[in-house]
Amino acid sequence: MNLNESSPFANSMQQPYHTHASLSIAGKVILITGAYGLIGQTVSISFLDQGAYIILADIDTNKRPEVENVVSARFPEKQFLFQTLDITSEISCANTVNAAVQKFGRLDVLINNAAIDAKFDAEQSAGKHNARFENYPIASLRNSVDVNLIGTIQITQQVCRQMLRQNAGNIINVASTYSLVAPNQTLYNFGDGQQQFKPVDYVASKSFIPNFTRYVATFYAREGIRCNAIVPHAIFNNHETPFLENFARLSPMGRMCDRDELTGPFTFLASDASSYMTGSLLSVDGGWTAW
Ligand SMILES: NC(=O)c1ccc[n+]([C@@H]2O[C@H](COP(=O)([O-])OP(=O)(O)OC[C@H]3O[C@@H](n4cnc5c(N)ncnc54)[C@H](O)[C@@H]3O)[C@@H](O)[C@H]2O)c1
Fold first, then answer.
1. What is the Å distance from ligand 1's center to 112 Cα?
2. Which residues constitute the domain of residue 225?
3. What's the CA-to-centroid distance between 181 and ligand 1, angstroms?
């Protein structure tokens, strides 16, 4: 049989297709900031299950015992390190990197996940008028910028010093759909006559993530360090019915994200299967930014 020479099958007869690099992250040393939060815990446990060495770093010492109990019941101590980290403190960032390298000898991946993101709980509702743009307190804005922007840069600086010594490294920034588009405030109208708002601090401090990702990616592209961002949206966490109904109406997929639906994309970016990716944004948003 004569195959047309322009056919991909013709090519495969002479030169077999290559397989992709491994999706395995087993043996990789991975630092996750904000590790005691919703996404941080999910990713940490999935990565431990996949055989990675994990540094679980977070500022919240109250949440630590609960997470530590779960992790130490399931995984050997040689596989993890709990580290109290405040990304707004240069010393704390340096100590975290030193502790990681002391225990594991190197640092392969940084996941910049820690952030301040106001929740729509009773506390937030009580201050709902402050959430309007024209009233939003500048002190709260400064606080969010300090953590989400300056803190993210600060821990990345410390990690990059180590990755340069290794001539290798991989950074995954956690962005948000609100790094790309404005919040649709009708999502936060729960039909009780009191419109709530996603405040400007989050949008202001997360909007920098995509361009910071491109900055770091291009800065280090020839020095062995790559940098990409993941763009999650609306992880289900027992939200109430009015929110779920609004969400179903506004989202292309019509449902929130199950936390386990994030672990595949995180694994892909942490693995060598994404080795030619740098400066990219990987959206995991059920189509939220597609219309
Ligand atoms: N949950 C979502 O639906 C969603 C959607 C889009 C993006 N994100 C992003 O995902 C990331 C994680 O979100 P989450 O929902 O798990 O939040 P979360 O509030 O559950 O967890 C954030 C963690 O960061 C920690 N943290 C705060 N300040 C810190 C500091 N100075 N130093 C170190 N740790 C600090 C907190 O203690 C907390 O454990 C954030 O970057 C957020 O912007 C979340």
1. 9
2. 22-290
3. 19
